[in-house]
Design a protein that fits this description.
With 1613 residues, this protein is of the alpha+beta class. It has 66 helices and 39 strands. Helix 26 packs antiparallel against helix 27 (717-730), helix 26 (695-709) runs parallel beside helix 28 (737-752) and helix 43 (1199-1222) crosses helix 47 (1269-1286).
């Protein structure tokens, strides 16, 4: 049993239960039986949706009516049941009928409903035998089959019809039903009497007078008997008389003979024959025994057909008709369904027709005609005359099996209708044709009534439809041929017309091919709308579709709409429909308003489906001057938008309105996208509306661009100025200030554009799908700072990107950004960091970023699209970059250049593009770009940063230094780490393997949090190493067994994480659980040693910064402030892990941190080395001195040495920061002067670099605080950056001494093999300048150059050369190396202080050279001149100086040796102050021509005896309050040195020839000069008695000394 049946039976059971419960006990069984009888035929579906109480109510209502109705009269009730009134309800109107059971009841009731146009929802009827008791109460009921005695049989109806609310409608329907029931009742009651009458007439007929032969009579009798045998439903009878009246005949009914339905018409039926048509008159008086026809009225009983009429004529003796017996009723189904040969009258009629026709019996034609007649409509066979039927049969035979239309018309004998037989090929027959035929026939015969039809299909190719056209005027004139022609045209299908049109347009062969393909391809709706001739145009377009070309279109103005703004667009698309939501926005962006749209599918005979979409649109009439031109432009643009070659936005309006092509509109679009990136506040939509308002200005701007960059005819600057002036003139008509600003900005941007690839074509000679502009941002107002020197903006519908660079030789990575709205801001932030990072290397900073705009979601496709976008971006860059061939510049082709040669462009991998370097190099090769695979470092032939671990190792140098400065060696001592990233990452993975003493407590990436509260350093190291060596790994892969108790790996997607006791202890919290974000935040805030950032994201900010300022939404929830960070050291392997202010805040709290660009410079430095090496080697490959294979092998063999070079730079850079930092606030003023000097030259914007303002610096000075390490990091980078730039001068780069810097910048194998080739390196000058700048700043500190310049006014190159001499003489490099070698062996502070003393001494020496150097000497000569003196002095200093001083030096040295410093180094450092005199000594020795030993002895002893050394200490220890005092102090020192040198020379001049006893000679000289010396000694005595001195005292004292030396200066003998 199905679910429905089960439900239904449950409902019926429930109804029965209700009956049992509620009905009077006597009646329960009867009512129950009644309900079951009523509902037994109800379908399960009807039952399913009903409730038992309503079914119960309906049954009870009907039962009550039945019980009341004791007569045979019909009871009809039409009502809307309500619970309040009837105890049940229904949403429909209910009809209850109780009538005496008789035939035809159900059919007739249904017909009545149809006539009244009322739909029934449920019709239940049940005939019942009913037995009543004496009191007329029902005592028994059963169905008709039951063998039960009954008082009466009734049929009960329960009908649900459409809800009727109009009481008059209800009443009229009830009346109709009543009258129908009367008809049925009458017809049924008189059926037997009528039948008797028919039998009577049949028996009587042979005896009547008629003058007919026996066979004819017999046939008629046979027919009548056939009717009696249930082949005719008899409904009425009446006898008629025909009598002559006044020259006419009158037919009059005998009313008393009426039976059945004819009883209903009570008025006398008389009719004059003259009122009948001729044919009818003849028929009425003819000798034919029978009249067979139809009456004028439709039956209301049994079947809704016109009632059949059988008349049997009566004749007088003369054979005249005197009357008829008329029977009415309906032929039964046998008459229609059985063969015509079985119907008595028809049998002989057909025989007679067949005798009349010319075909021999048995022939095909004979059989065909017979078949036509056999299957002819029966009513027609009966009513039509024989000759009419023969004519039709032969006519049909002729058209049979031919594609033709035929019409046969027969006029009804009584002129009531025309019977039309229409034959059409069956495949042409359809409802539309049938309706049209009805209209044609109705019009032809002038009929107002609906034309009735019956259609007949057989095996024949023709379909036959019998139309009955009822008329009032039967004398109408008509021409069958004309009507037939109209029908033929109507039946001529759209397909027929299409075929003709195709043959006409395409010729017979192709026309027929196309017709076969498309004849059944179009939908009905298409054919209704489109003329066949127009379809030919559509077919031609559909034929153009292919896999490569999936879209075709027609854009036209319909002739009907010639003077309106309406245009039409047809889109033809292959294989699949176009979605409206895809195409509508496109059209609207062209400024078209869609007012109608129809899609059509076209299914061709080969089974393929293509689609046509037809749009009606309103167009703005501005652009409509030359519609053909507009149409071509629009079609091209829309095709490109559809194929994603043009973007879909409001700039496309300018195609129709501004007369631009789609590509020209893209110029404006590209600049708008660029505006968005440079922070212009206008939205793109707003800019679009500006141009929509001023389309002519838009075309002027495009024209300005075209004239500026057109390769064929570039305009002169005069012409360009004119065009700009013209645009500005137009601006007077622009009322809105915003519109004005936008248009001016466009002009500025075009003027700031130096190059574009807009006019370049690709290999297929097509314009490129992307456009790139080289822009000089300084020419555009209000571009966000810092301003790059140049940038290239690449735009295409797929990708946008920008490449910023701060100079012509610049390098930096290209990142795949996801910040579509502001990727330039991201890149600007990165390039700023890159700029300071690149101070270690030759190029200045550059950075690129691109966003993909059409990314698919599927992973592989996503990556592939990223690569394609990257390629477009790279091409955009290379398109407008010059090339070098054989040392000569080759300008970019088809590019108008508004700038100088510019050929250096290198890129590198970055976030998202780690594996793309080979792609970039592939494109560089395709362009024959001079850098070859040096273009993008990190390719497959190059240094693999991850394998080398170079970035992490570089940053680890910083980490080691931070720990070392806390006197911890992190390579031998365990320390705790929290880290960001995972072992699969380069920086994280390599970094976390750089010490075996790492105890990694917490690590997290974007998916997991790794927690190991008490890690085992050695075991966890091995496990991390295992993960790192896996091809792909995540924290999930970490062996959980190796995690200490209470730890684990947690998903960041978890709702919360339960904290173990160990985790609580580690985090210092009492919380039971935390969300993942809270846990990460707490990890950063707990106490630990090192935070290692090897991931992506910004996790530390300053308290004053908001999360929005940081611009990394993904990590807002776990970011902390610098002062909250619980680490002692922050190592920044990754970029942007902290904001600069965050670092500063951390450093102010005592945290040890540099900056990301200092820490992770290793990667950049490595890449730059690779590029420079490749440039050198590629030159050799090009010359044939080296094969590519040899080059690659050589490259790989030098990996370790390149790594060493890089790490040395990292080590030295952090070292210089430490030395500068070690002096603390004592040198703050110098640093402030350095900041001011940079600002004055426009090289530094403090706000951008977060360098404090003067007020803040003053506060720091007052509170004894210095600049923090992150701030010093910035200043060190700026010092190098500025210096690097200024050292690219011939004085330096062409100086033979500095060639060693070029050579040493390459690994040893290259120095040995290709030393000479290095002279031709394109970046030779830049390499020398970079190396020298780095050496100077690393050795001498960040403000050395500025200080030297301020103190001496010398140029950078002059200072650099003097530094080179000084550092070489003082053996700075070796001493520095020896001190560095003491890492982790002596306290860092001691080490740093020693290096500071070394730095200070070389600085003083540099100043000496700047003042006293003999400029005719080369650097080499200078070194040669002074070095011997230095080595002599170093070795013998103790013998030259007085004992007291020697003891002091020894004492100082002992302090250092106690700290673990080797004696020789200690001695060197403590002697530096004395060794400083080396230059003076050498000069004296040279001037006096004495031996160095004697000169030194004299110099030092004289100084000691005269108290000059003591006086020097006083100067040195004099505190300074400002810069001028500092300058004064240093000038006093120099003055004193000069006086000591002069006096020593005077003393030496007084010596007898080469005397050895210096002490004696000095005594002698001092005695001689007693008088002069007394004044000096008094001065010193005064100095010694006072605690503090002012600057004036020093000045006076030095003047005295000068006079002394002047007066003592006796000429040498």
């Amino acid at each position: 049993m199905t679910r429905n049946e089960g439900q239904a039976s449950v409902i019926l059971d429930n109804v029965c239960k209700l009956i049992q419960k509620k009905v009077h006990a006597d009646n329960v069984l009867l009512v129950e039986k009644f309900a079951k009888a009523l509902y037994s035929n109800m379908s399960k579906e009807d039952l399913a949706n009903r409730n038992d109480s309503d079914l119960y109510g309906a049954a009870l209502s009907l039962w009550n009516s039945l019980e009341k109705n004791t007569t045979d009269d019909a009871v009809i009730r039409v009502f809307n049941p309500e619970v309040a009134k009837d105890g049940w309800q229904s949403s429909h109107t209910i009809v209850e009928i109780i009538a005496k059971d008789m035939p035809f009841l159900v059919d007739s009731v249904r017909m009545a409903m149809t006539r009244e146009n009322i739909a029934s929802h449920l019709l239940l009827h049940s005939p019942l035998k009913i037995q009543r008791d004496d009191s007329a109460k029902i005592s028994g009921l059963s169905n008709l089959k039951a063998e039960q005695e009954s008082t009466s049989t009734k049929t009960v109806f329960f009908i649900e019809i459409d809800r009727q609310t109009d009481s008059s409608a209800i009443e009229s329907f009830k009346k109709e039903l009543e009258s129908v029931l009367v008809d049925v009742s009458v017809a049924v009651e008189d059926w037997q009497p009528i039948r008797k009458k028919l039998i009577e007439v049949s028996k009587e007929l042979p005896k009547r007078r008629h003058g007919k032969n026996k066979s004819e009579v017999a046939e008629t009798v046979e027919f009548l008997d056939w009717l009696v045998s249930d082949n005719f439903t008899l409904m009425g009878y009446r006898e008629y008389e025909l009598s002559p009246v006044q020259g006419d005949y009158q037919l009059k009914g005998k009313m008393d003979t009426s039976l059945g339905l004819l009883k209903n018409s009570t008025e006398e039926h008389t009719r004059l024959l003259s009122e009948l048509p001729e044919v009818a008159r003849q028929e009425a008086r003819s000798s034919n025994l029978l009249i067979l026809t139809k009456t004028n009225s439709q039956s209301r009983v049994h079947r809704p057909a016109y009632i059949d009429y059988v008349g049997v004529k009566r004749f007088d003796d003369e054979g005249n008709v005197i009357g008829e017996d008329r029977f009415i009723g309906l032929f039964s189904s046998n008459f229609y369904n059985n063969s015509a040969a079985d119907v008595p009258v028809l049998k002989s009629k057909i025989t007679r027709i067949m005798d009349m026709c010319d075909f021999a019996k048995g022939t095909h034609a004979y059989k065909a005609v017979l078949n036509i007649l056999e299957t002819y409509p029966r009513d027609e066979l009966v009513q039509a005359r024989e000759n009419e039927l023969l004519e039709v049969a032969t006519g049909v035979l002729q058209v049979q099996e031919r594609d033709m239309c035929r019409l046969f018309v027969r006029k009804d004998a009584y002129g009531r209708f025309f019977s039309c037989m229409v034959y059409v090929p069956r495949e042409r027959y359809n409802t539309a044709l049938r309706r049209e035929t009805q209209d044609i026939l109705g019009n032809a015969f002038n009929s107002d009534e609906k034309v009735e039809f019956t259609t007949y299909f057989s095996e024949s190719t023709l379909a036959r439809t019998h139309y009955t056209v009822r008329v009032t005027d039967n004398n109408i004139e008509f021409n069958v041929k004309d009507i037939e022609n109209n029908l033929i045209e109507a039946a001529r299908t759209w397909e027929d017309k299409l075929q003709s049109a195709l043959l006409e347009s395409a010729g017979e062969a192709r026309g027929n091919d196309l017709n076969r393909k498309y004849c059944n391809a179009f939908a009905r709706s298409y054919k209704d709308e489109v003329l066949p001739s127009a379809a030919v145009v559509d077919i031609e377009k559909l034929e153009l579709l292919s896999e490569e070309n999936k879209l075709e279109m027609l854009f036209y103005r319909p002739q009907e709409e010639a003077n309106t703004n309406i245009v039409r667009l047809s889109l033809f698309h292959k294989d699949e429909p176009i979605h409206l939501s895809d195409v509508m926005p496109m059209l609207e962006n062209f400024g078209l308003r869609v007012i109608g749209e129809t899609p059509y599918s076209v299914k061709t005979s080969d089974g393929k489906i293509n689609w046509i979409m037809d749009f009606s649109m309103l167009i703005d009439s501005k652009g409509m001057d030359d519609f053909d031109k507009v149409s071509a432009r629009f079609r091209a643009a829309l095709t490109n938008v559809w194929n994603n070659r043009l973007e879909n936005d409001g700039f496309n309006r300018l195609v129709l309105m501004g007369g631009l092509t789609g590509r020209e509109a893209s110029i404006l679009r590209a600049y708008a996208k660029y505006m968005r990136q440079i922070g212009v506040t206008f939205s793109q939509t707003y800019i679009e509306s500006t141009f929509a308002n001023y389309p002519h200005i838009a075309s002027q701007i495009v024209n300005l661009f075209a004239k500026r960059f057109s390769v064929k005819s570039p305009a002169s600057s005069k012409t360009l100025d004119k065009l700009i002036a013209q645009i500005y003139l137009e601006l007077e008509n622009v009322a809105n200030l915003d519109d004005d600003r936008i248009i001016r900005l466009y002009v500025d941007m075009i003027v700031a554009t130096l190059r574009t690839n807009y006019y370049q074509k690709d290999a297929q000679n097509q314009f490129k799908s992307y456009v790139s502009f080289k822009i000089q941002p300084s020419l555009i107002p209000d571009v966000p700072l810092p301003l790059p020197a140049f940038e290239i903006f690449v735009y295409s519908p797929r990708v946008e990107g920008v490449h910023l660079r701060f100079g012509k030789v610049a390098r930096g990575g290209l990142r795949w950004s996801d910040r579509r709205e502001d990727f330039r801001t991201e890149v600007l932030g990165l390039v700023k960091a890159q700029q300071v990072k690149n101070t270690v290397i030759v190029p200045v900073g550059s950075k690129g970023g691109f966003v993909c705009k059409q990314l698919p979601s599927e992973r592989d496709a996503f990556i592939k699209e990223g690569q394609e976008c990257y390629k477009i971006f790279i091409r955009g860059l290379l398109d407008i970059t010059d090339n070098i061939a054989r040392g000569e510049i080759v300008p970019a082709s088809n590019v108008v250049r508004h700038d100088e040669d510019d050929a250096y462009l290198v890129v590198a991998a970055d976030k998202g593009t780690a594996t793309f370097s080979d792609i970039a190099n592939g494109i560089a090769n395709e362009y024959n770009f001079w850098l070859g695979d040096a273009f993008a470092s990190g390719g497959s032939v190059g240094y693999d940063h991850k394998k080398m671990g170079i970035t992490a190792k570089g940053a680890w140098e910083s980490v080691k230094r931070h720990f070392r400065e806390m006197d911890i060696d992190c390579q031998t001592t365990d320390f705790t780490v929290v880290a960001i990233g995972d072992m699969a990452g380069d920086v994280f993975g390599n970094g976390m393997l750089l010490s075996k003493h790492i105890r990694l407590q917490v690590a997290f990436n974007h998916m997991h949090i790794f927690v190991d509260p008490n890690p085992d350093a050695s075991k966890s190291y091995v496990e991390r190493e295992r993960l790192f060596n896996m091809p792909r790994s995540s924290w999930e892969d970490y062996n959980k067994d190796l995690i200490s108790a209470g730890g684990g790996i947690f998903s960041r997607a978890a709702k919360s994480i339960t904290l173990s006791p160990e985790m609580k202890k580690m985090l210092g919290t009492k919380k039971a659980s935390m969300t993942p974000n809270e846990l990460m935040k707490a990890s950063l805030m707990m106490e630990f040693d090192l935070l290692w950032n090897g991931g992506i994201g910004t996790y530390i900010k300053h308290t004053k910064e908001t999360d929005a300022d940081v611009g990394d939404r993904a990590n807002d929830a776990l970011r902390i402030n610098g002062k909250e960070l619980g680490a002692k050291v922050l190592g920044e392997g990754g970029n942007l892990g902290a904001t600069q202010l965050g670092r500063i805040e951390f450093a102010e709290q005592g945290g040890r941190v540099n900056t990301d660009f200092i820490d992770n410079v290793g990667g950049v430095a490595c890449s730059d080395n690779e590029v420079n090496i490749k440039i050198l080697l590629n030159g050799l490959v090009a010359e044939g001195d080296l094969t590519l294979k040899q080059r690659d092998e050589l490259l790989y063999s030098m990996t370790d040495e390149v790594s060493e070079l890089v790490l040395k730079d990292c080590y030295r850079q952090t070292h210089t920061i430490s030395i500068t930092q070690s002096r603390g606030t004592s040198t703050l003023k110098e640093k402030i002067r350095f900041i001011h000097a940079l600002e004055k030259d426009g090289k530094l914007d403090r706000a951008i670099e977060f360098i404090p303002s003067d007020e803040e610096l003053a506060e720091r000075a007052a509170s004894g605080k210095d600049l923090t390490r992150p701030e010093l990091s910035v200043l060190v980078s700026y010092a190098k950056m500025v210096l690097k730039d200024s050292l690219v001068t011939d004085e330096i780069t062409e100086n033979p001494y500095y060639r060693q810097l070029l050579v040493k910048s390459f690994p040893r194998p290259l120095r040995e093999k290709f030393n000479d080739a290095m002279n031709n390196h394109p970046l030779r000058k830049e390499i020398i300048a970079t190396k020298l700048a780095n050496n100077i700043v690393n050795d001498m500190g960040l403000n050395f150059m500025v200080r030297m310049h301020e103190e001496t006014g010398a140029s950078e190159s002059e200072i650099a050369m003097c530094y080179s001499i000084a550092s070489e003489i003082f053996e700075m490099r070796d001493t520095w190396s020896s001190i560095s070698a003491l890492d982790n062996k002596i306290p860092a502070a001691v080490q740093t202080e020693m290096l500071y003393q070394l730095r200070r001494t070389v600085r003083r020496a540099t100043r000496w050279f700047l003042r006293h150097r003999n400029k005719s000497q080369t650097i080499e000569q200078g070194i040669e001149y002074f070095s011997p003196t230095f080595s002599d002095l170093s070795d013998n200093l103790n013998t030259y100086i007085v004992e007291k001083e020697s003891a002091r030096i020894d004492e100082a040295a002992t302090k250092l040796t106690d700290s673990g410093v080797p004696l020789d180094i200690a001695k060197r450092i403590v002697s530096l102050s004395s060794l400083f005199s080396v230059m003076d000594l050498a000069e004296i020795a040279n001037n006096s021509r004495r031996g160095i030993a004697m000169v030194s002895n004299t110099y030092f002893k004289l100084g000691a005896r005269m108290g000059l050394h003591w006086f020097l200490d006083q100067i040195t220890n004099q505190p300074v309050a400002n810069h001028w005092q500092a300058l004064a102090r240093s000038s006093y020192r120099e003055e004193l040195d000069w006086q000591q040198r002069t006096l020593a020379q005077v003393v030496l001049n007084s010596f007898e020839a080469d005397e050895k006893d210096v002490d004696y000679q000095i005594d002698e000289w001092m005695d001689k000069q007693e008088l002069l010396l007394t004044r000096w000694k008094q001065m010193l005595a005064e100095f010694k008695t006072s605690q503090s001195h002012d600057f004036a005292k020093f000045s006076v004292a030095l003047r005295e000394l000068m006079l002394l030396s002047h007066n003592c200066d006796t000429p040498a003998k």
